[in-house]
Fold this sequence. Notes:
Blueprint: H1 13-23, E1 32-37, E2 41-46, E3 50-55, H2 58-76, E4 88-92, E5 101-105, E6 110-111, H3 125-136, H4 155-169, H5 175-187, E7 198-200, E8 209-212, E9 215-219, E10 226-228, H6 231-240, H7 243-253, H8 258-282, H9 285-299
Antiparallel strand pairs: 1-2, 2-3, 3-5, 4-5, 6-8, 7-10, 8-9
Helix pairs in contact: 3-7, 4-5, 4-8, 6-8, 6-9, 8-9
Amino acid sequence: MMKPWxxxxxxxxxxxxxKIERAFPELKPVGIKNCGTGFDHTVYEVNEEWVFRFPRxxxxxxxxxxxxxxxxxxxxxxxxxxxxxxxxxxYREAEDDxxxxxxxxxxxxxxxxxxxxxxxxxxxxxxxxxxxxxxxxLPSEKVDADPDHxxxxxxxxxxxxxxxxxxxxxxxxxxxxxxxxxSYIDQLEEWENATGTTPLHGDLxxxxxxxxxxRLAGIIDWGDAHIGHPAVDLSIAYACMTPEVRKDFFExxxxxNQRTHELARxxxxxxxxxxxxxxKDTGDQDVLRWGLAGLKKSLA
Length: 300
């Protein structure tokens, strides 16, 4: 049985270079470097200036289309952000049985999970809160994004699956935290998806944040962007901040009701558990470290 992140359409560095040089001769000679592999894409840095993303599977192709639409919208409305976000520079339609692929501006730095300090975002709590306040205040009619068809906040839909993911991750979760996780899932009420009219990043977690020169510099991977409930993004405060620091975050973002806090916590615990399953299956020790720290914070 394939894992959710296994590739059906892998693109090697050699193949990527050939594709890019053929499609965009102005980039020759292409200097190419592997930037890593995510759930949905294989990513290469090109000429130190661009980042090309190649979908690894159907969900990656769909995420690429969503990301392209969202980033075009942010560029068109001249969204001013505390952090860099990619801008679309190149797009190539599919060749043969491959998917289309895109090239974005390169945000220099490294992925947050490479940082050893899992409290790294504490110094940026106010900035992140301000960033999300601005993003969530954008008029939804000016953002080219769809409603939350995946029902990301529905415990009625996801509770049984949550148990499965927890069990699949159990070998890398210390016993005391695993029992606490199961207890949290046991006590979850089963609610329908919370809807909303807020423009969202949709997948804000440590693998989608870029650090440069000791500071949080950029937000990447907008492939889950949609119009929905703000708790989806606010989950970052539960996943990466202690309760004390979380107060600073929400002072910058603004007051939210208790239900929104509950939804944000649910999203954080769920995503951290998914990251732990990914870390177990891939052997990624950086993601394992951040996943365990995030699970502890979100359950606190």
